[in-house]
Amino acid sequence: MNPQKRQEIFARLCEHIREPKSELEYRSNFELLISVLLSAQATDVSVNKATAGLYAVANTPETMLALGEEGLREYIKTIGLFNSKAKNVIATCKILIDQHDSEVPDDRSALEALPGVGRKTANVILNVAFGHPTIAVDTHIFRVSNRTGIAPGKDVLAVEKKLLRLVPQEFKLDAHHLLILHGRYTCIARKPRCVSCVIADLCEFKQKNIE
Predict the structure, then answer these.
(1) In a domain, 208, yes or no
(2) How far separated are the first and last CA of the chain, in Å rounded?
C-alpha cells in the first residue's frame, strides 16, 4: 500500500469517526488504568457495568486497596477472569501508593512493572491518559491492519511497529481508536460490512463482502 492511499484511509476514518476515543467509562487516570486491566478478554460494556458500582465506592488506590481482593471480587465477578484480575488490581494499588504517590505513572517501564499490565495496556494508558502517539494492537487493530493492507504483520508487535512507522504523523494520536472503532463496528471479524465501509475502495482485502 502506498503512502497516498494510507493518508486517504486515515483522513476518511477521521471524517467518519468524529470522536475517536475509548468506550470505557472513567473519570481519572486511575479509573482508566483499572478499567483497562479489567477489560482483558472482556467487553467494554461488561466492564462499564461492573465499574459503575465499583467506582461509586472506590475510585482511588487507597479506597480500592481497602476493599481487598474479596471485596473487589463482589463488584467484578460478572467479568471474566475476575479472581486473577482482583489480585492484580489490589497489588497494583499497593504499588501505586508505595512507589508513585498514588498516581498513575507516565512511563512505560513503570507501567509494565504493575501486575497485569503488559505492553498493550501500557500503550493504552500512555495514549489515552498522557497523549503519547502509541498504538495498542488488539484483535480489532490486528485484523484491520492485515485485512486492509494498512500495516500487515504476523504478530501484534510487528503490526504495532509497522503502524508507528507508516501511519501519517497527523493521525498518530488518534490512530489507535480510529482502527479499533472501525474494526468493532464495520470491519468486523466474520462478515465485514464492506457495503457501508468508507474505505472499501481503498482497502486491499480481496474477499470483500459486497453482497
Answers:
(1) no
(2) 25
Instruction: Give residue-wise pLDDT tens across range 87-121.
Output: 999 999 999 999 999 999 999 999 999 999 999 99
For residue 211, what pLDDT band results from cuts at 50, 70 and 90? Answer: low
* 3-class DSSP assignment, residue 170: helix
Number of helical (H) and strand (E) elements in the chain, helices listed first: 10, 0
> Among 2, 10, 47, which Cα is nearest to 168's?
10
Burial of 97 (0-12, 13-18, 19+ CB in 10 A): middle
* Cα–Cα distance, 185 to 131 (Å, whole number): 24
Give the active site residues. Answer: 120, 138
Is the same domain home to 105 and 168?
no
Give the domain-ending residue among 128, 150, 175: 128
Report the distance separating Cα 97 and Cα 65, nearest Å.
Answer: 9
Q: How far is CA 193 from CA 20, 35, 178, 198, 199, in A?
A: 19, 29, 16, 10, 11
Long-range contacts of 79-87 (CB under 8 A, 24+ apart): 79/38, 79/42, 79/46, 79/47, 79/50, 80/41, 80/42, 81/40, 81/41, 81/42, 84/116, 85/37, 85/38, 85/40, 85/116, 87/115
